[in-house]
Structures are given as C-alpha cells and as structure tokens.
Design goal:
This protein is an alpha+beta fold. The protein is built from 6 helices and 9 strands. The chain has one domain. The chain is globular and about 50 Å long.
Length: 233
C-alpha cells in the first residue's frame, strides 16, 4: 500500500514493534520519545536521506518571535526543500490531553495547506487509555444534537469533517484551550480526517494499539484568524 495514500503500513509496522517490545518486557519504557524509533526506522526505510526529524513547521516557525526553539514537526519527508509527507505522533499517557491532540491535527492541516503535503497523525497507547479518551464528553457526539459526531472518526475507516469555526457550544472550551497557542494564525474553519483501522485490532484493555488518521484540507478552504501568536506556541 502506498504510504502517501494511507498510513496503514505505518500503523501496522509501529503496532507490531510495540507488541514485540511488550513481549520483551519493555513496556515501562513506552513513551512518545520511544515511539519515534519505529516510526523513524519505517520512514527511513521508505525515504532514505529525504527523511528529517524535528523539522521546522513551515507556517508556525515563520510566525514565532523571541527566544526559544521554533515549532517543529516530528517527521518530515522532503522533495528538494518542499515537504512531501509530515507525521506528528502522540503517546497517550497520564499527562496527555485532548487539547494537545486537537492542536497537533490543526498543525498538520496547516502543513497540508501550505505545502500540498500528505499529513498523518499517529496515536498510541493502551486500549484502556485510548477508549477512555474516546469516551470523554468533549470527544463524544453531543446527545442532544442529532447531527453531532465524535470529534474524530474512531469506529470506522470513514472520512469526517471537523469544524472549528463556528465552534459547537459544547466544544467551545476545548477549542479555546487547544487553539490558544495558535493566535495570529489563519486557521481552517473546517478540515477533514480519515481513520485507518487500529493495529493490533483484537487486544485486551492493558495491551497497546496504534491509531492513524490522514489530515486533509477541506475541498474549499476557508480560514479564520485569532489575534496574535504568543511566545511558546
């Protein structure tokens, strides 16, 4: 399967590696940093020296002022100087938040729009922690809104639009917290997510899974702007 059409191979590769590491008794080491190893190995096998890690974000790095490092992408594959593929990763642990996940999705949409790149979000953790996240009130569809949907597609490999503006009333707090560090940026009013099935599929609550989503621009891209970009974005 073409990696630039679907993250399926990447999800399977990383999920298989996690299963192997768990069988070796190394689950205490699992973290976002630990997850970067199999992703880097897979992508370097596909793209060789075109792969970059911690690559400057093409939009946000230009807006960041002041001291400190500029916003970066976890992984980027280049064609000459243009980003062809970008991957952001998240390990769902005790300090993970839905706000940071949503912000990563928006950061990827900005890359897709700016560079016409393929962008993927990879999320890993125990089945228990993943399902706890998917069951939160802010993630789930709002029961009083018949057209409401979960924040991200998680049950089927379908494509779903996620609207940021105007924000649904029951997600206003989530969106405000998520986008607070992106003030001053032209943000998409709507963008599109497409899930690939988690791997492994059949696991117990304490075992580990990897989910992947492709992040795409909406067909007709419309933006809204927050006021200014603070230091630390």
């Amino acid at each position: 399967m073409d990696i630039e059409r679907s993250p399926r191979e990447l999800v399977e590769a990383v999920g298989s590696w996690l299963h192997f590491e768990a069988m070796c008794g190394r689950t205490e080491l699992f973290s976002e940093q630990y997850l970067s190893y199999p992703i880097g190995q897979y992508l370097s096998g596909k793209y060789g020296d075109r792969l970059r890690t911690e690559f400057p974000h093409p939009v946000l790095s230009q807006l960041r002022t002041g001291r400190g490092d500029k916003p970066r992408l976890d992984f980027a594959v280049l064609d000459d100087d243009a980003i062809r593929l970008a991957v952001e990763t998240k390990w769902l642990g005790p300090t993970s938040s839905l706000e940071s996940i949503l912000r990563d999705l928006v950061r990827l949409e900005l890359v897709a729009a700016h560079s016409h790149a393929t962008t993927y979000f990879i999320l890993g953790g125990t089945k228990r922690n993943l399902h706890a996240l998917f069951s939160t009130k802010a993630f789930q569809a709002y029961p009083e809104h018949t057209e409401s949907r979960p924040l991200m597609p998680v049950d089927h490999n379908n494509t779903r639009a996620l609207r940021l503006d105007p924000a649904p009333a029951f997600r206003e707090e989530l969106f405000a917290k998520s986008l607070a560090k992106l003030k001053g940026v032209d943000l998409p009013r709507v963008f599109v997510l497409q899930r690939t099935a988690p791997f492994p599929t059949l696991v117990k609550a304490g075992q580990f899974q990897i989910y992947g989503w492709r992040v795409e621009c909406a067909g007709v891209r419309s933006t809204f702007r927050c006021e200014e970009l603070p230091d630390g974005a």
